Amino acid sequence: MNFRKSKTIFNYNLLKGWxxxxxxxxxxxxxxxxxxxxxDSLLQNIAAFKKSKVFNxxxxxxxxxxxxxGAEYRFHNLDSLIIISKQGLELSRKASYLNGEISSLHxxxxxxxxxxxxxxAISYFEKAYELSKxxxxxxxxxxxxxxxxxxxxxxxxxxxxxKFYLATIEIAEKNNDKNSISIVNDxxxxxxxxxxxxxxxxxxxxxxxxxxxxxxxxxxxxxxxSNIASTYADMNELEYAMYNINISISIFEKxxxxxWLAYCYEVKGKIYLKKNKNTWAxxxxxxxxxxxxxxDDDRGKIDLLNGMAEAYMNQNKDSIAEVxxxxxxxxxxKLGLRSxxxxxxxxxxxxxxxxxxxxxSLWYHEIYQVTYESLTQTGNEKALNMLKTxxxxxxxxxxxIIDNEKALAKQKVFIYVALIVLIIFAxxxxxxxxxxxxxxxxxxxxxxxxxxxxxxxxxxxxxxxxKNKLFSIIGHDLRGPIGAFQGLLKLFKEGEMxxxxxxxxxPKLKVDIDTISFTLNNLLSWGxxxxxxxxxxxxxxxxxxxxEENVALLSEIAESKSIAIINRxxxxxxxxxxxxxxxxxxxNLLSNALKFTPNNGQIVIGAIQKAKTCEIYVKDNGMGMSxxxxxxxFEKDSNHTTYGTNDEKGTGLGLSLCKEMVEKxxxxxxxxxxxxxxSTFYFTIPRVQQPQKQYKVSA
Length: 699
What we know:
699 residues, alpha+beta, 5-stranded mixed beta sheet, two-stranded antiparallel sheet, 24 helices, extended
């Protein structure tokens, strides 16, 4: 943002002084590194161009890098800014590179603006703006026109400043450039702040804030919030000021935008100063002062110096206060900033009067009085001129609308004639193409019927595949164990097996029957999903209860392999899901883990509760899987079956069934695995959202 009424204060939690100084130093170092990285990148690009065998200084890409390099020195080295910008201007003119010439003139204008040479800055901004009218870049036109308006504001010609700002908004609106519109609103607010019309200034700042809320750029929002905070401080709305400045600080600290961060620290110091907390005011002023050593922004420094002078005066440290007030006075004179001269001269008058140096006190008081009267006298004129300018601008805009309406009225005759011709042409075309349309309609019906037949064929193929898969599972995975069970019973019935021998097979029979039961449950659930008969019914589900039931159900299998199942699900872990489907998911994942975990292994099941979801995991230290197996694991038509550590066998349905049911419950499932190190299956399920408490805000 081009205009800074105030700078953002970082949201430290009142840490001790030495720690904060250390942190500020760290921020400064990181920011400098970030700036250097960008600058170094541009320098490397420029060096690469120069080393090229076909280097041509008229290369527009080379000039573009050179101009951008100059802009990088804006807040760090004004001498480098002017030298590089003049070089870029010369090369742009030789290469007839219009955009480079505009940007170079703009950078030179910035140099003179920061030096306090407003008339020279205006001259360069005007040249850049005139050239930008001939460019195909509305961005350059908006930028130069906005900076031109800003310089007239510094000069005190608020009438011209407002006129240019309104023109800038009009261009930005045509190009839907919402960020530029918000910038200009902040700058117009500054014009009203200079006249202490805080309410009108706040109107424009709130407009800017509304735009940022729509666009969603946190940095631009922080810049506007810092300006809002400064305005609230001037209005003595100190709590609102502190709230907004703390938000701004946190964003600028994160983004490491040093010049805005310095400004925010100064605003926070001003807030504490108005609260009569001079120690804290000086603390934040000094943080701003530290950052100003890294940037070249004399205009932004004046309010800081005057604020520190006032804080030291309040602490009766008059000698220190005089140093800061004198620095502010000299800097204001250098930049021609009358508001800064007035404030610092008033403080110096009071300080010399307190020292009984009445001659100097009177001298500074006269400077203060003359400046005050000048500002007061022109203030009313400026206010009237601003209103008059806005009215004239609106009248000109209205006249343009009227002229356009007249021009449109003249064009209506031609439009009517054209419409008649078009209607006749349309009738002819309708007659000509009527038969073609009928033919197209018939072709479309044929294509639709063909599509219907293809869809039905695909559906029948899918049903046939489902049937084949179903019979394959029944034939291979159910008929075998049931046939073995029948054979065992036949042997026992015919007396070829004793009772003791039969009883020895009972544990094995129980495992086989449990396996058959588990397979049948999966088969039925899978069949329902394939036949579109499975309905998901969401409700509040106690995850810990489902996990405990499945751990108990599978405990015998775990004990048979001496596997420890560790349940880390917290009590009262509530999720929004179909409890029956979650039960099937948990049972399949635990059964798989038991299948592929060797004897004396370990399985852990737990849940990580996040803001809106619950991430459930089942981790084992078993065989693990290769990347090839993982890639096929959740495929819908996959029937991949792997034997477990004790030759356990499954249907291959479990994981594809888990995937379908997790997705029906608005979740995701995935796996991390490595051969010989085990596997961890994860899936997410929405949490039950607790209702938000409503707080009554007192006026």
